[in-house]
Amino acid sequence: MKQKNTWVSWNENIKHNYTSLYKITSEEKLSEVIAKNDKIRFFGNKQSSADIAAGTDALIDMTSYNKIVSYDYNKKTVTVQSGLILGDFLEAIEAVGWCIPCLPDINTITIGGALATGTHGTSGKLLSEYMIECTLVLADGSIKTITEEDDLMDAVRVSLGMLGVMSTITFKCEKSYTLHVKERPEKDSEWLPKIKSRLKEHDFLRILWLPHTDKGYVITGDKIKPDTKIVENNGPKYLKHRRNASKILYKYSHIYPWITSIANKILAKAFFSSKKEHKGTLYQATVTKSRGSTLELAEWTIALDKFPQVFDELKTEINKWSNKSFIHIPMDVRFVKKDTSWLSYAYKQDIVTMGCVSRNAATADTYEAFKSVEKIFLKHGGRPHWGKRFSAKDVELSRVYPKWEAFKELRSNLDPTNKFLNPYLTKLVNAKAKKVINEIA
Ligand SMILES: Cc1cc2nc3c(=O)[nH]c(=O)nc-3n(C[C@H](O)[C@H](O)[C@H](O)COP(=O)(O)OP(=O)(O)OC[C@H]3O[C@@H](n4cnc5c(N)ncnc54)[C@H](O)[C@@H]3O)c2cc1C
């Protein structure tokens, strides 16, 4: 009998036994491994909070499949293997003077993991919208090249690794630019009505909302010439201790959730009350490069026009003392432009995304905030981030994703034996074991 090993996610909230682990370094090997296994999942840097990366006996570790394949300097395109770490990719393209103009606030994830879950930044499109071509290894091990001209591209861009494994990816890049970033605290009554005008005025907009304080921390960015002089102000030196201070203040918030309300007021005063100003490339100036500790994340998205109403409702709900939904700082508010990808949060609508963090990953199951946020966003037609925590399944998802049924049909045609489904994904798409049913029939 084969020995069982344990797969553990980044924040240790998901654990699965497995018997075979393949570390692949070539497309041929990827295709061979997929063809010979009946059930298989594949993972990048294991940083998703949703149970989407493992849960099958055979697993593929994509992180050694991480080379830059080629550059086309005339077209500003670059082709990479999907296990490449995002930070390595961004540094490589910056070195040739290019950028991807919308980046998530994390650089340790793999390209494949980022694309599969619809990873996004702010004031632009999902990362997957900058992909113009990819090769996809299908359930039978065959390799399909998909370009922007193919109808399939809209289905594949965000597909949680349910249609196949993305092998090589070609991105269309833009010329790198310098961003002048300004940060300051603002009352909710100030920043909320200014969202639309600021989206027009600035190249970058992000708001770190500070629940239970009536304040947000507004970050704007404007493109400038690299040699433009600015008065740099990085705020007091102690700001770098914010995450550790949060960890300490929230330590017992799972036992006494109301502590959060007091902790947030202290954190807002200490770490979000000073103005800051700096410049750099989008990657250098806005993406967090290191995190002291793990956390558990949820994130919901809503049409831009509906956001003020959802925000008000959420604020009222979490400020009720009868409610245990106290929320750790910050709730990250970002903006994504509409696209046509079937499972994109921004499918045919400009959206606002709102993060919800539990700084105690181990006690996330008791964090009421995840439930309250989900209830309110779902009620208004909000869509959950695929890589983060949510409990909605097939029925709810079919109401908020217009292309959900089309995606499910395509998935079952491309993977008729459900090779790529783990238990979580099986429930998500409400998949029936087609082959077995046919055999019985
Ligand atoms: C601290 C932190 C900050 C974050 N910040 C952001 C953010 O700013 N914006 C945002 O949108 N998200 C953010 N996320 C979510 C994160 O981007 C996603 O969870 C992402 O999927 C993690 O990438 P990974 O390499 O760890 O993938 P994994 O978690 O290992 O895998 C994720 C999914 O991708 C699939 N997959 C992996 N490789 C491939 C491939 N080659 N082809 C097809 N499918 C594949 C896996 O099977 C799995 O279903 C953040 C997460 C953390 C922990």
From TrEMBL:
Gene Ontology CC terms, in alphabetical order: membrane
Task: Give any GO molecular function from the UniProt entry.
Answer: D-arabinono-1,4-lactone oxidase activity
- Which InterPro entries does this UniProt record tie to the protein? ALO_C, FAD-bd_PCMH, FAD-bd_PCMH-like_sf, FAD-bd_PCMH_sub1, FAD-bd_PCMH_sub2, FAD_lactone_oxidase-like, Oxid_FAD_bind_N, Vanillyl_alc_oxidase_C-sub2
Q: Which residues form the FAD-binding PCMH-type domain?
A: 14-176
User: Which superkingdom does the taxonomy of this entry point to?
Assistant: Bacteria
Keyword annotations for this protein? FAD, Flavoprotein, Oxidoreductase
Can you name this protein?
D-arabinono-14-lactone oxidase
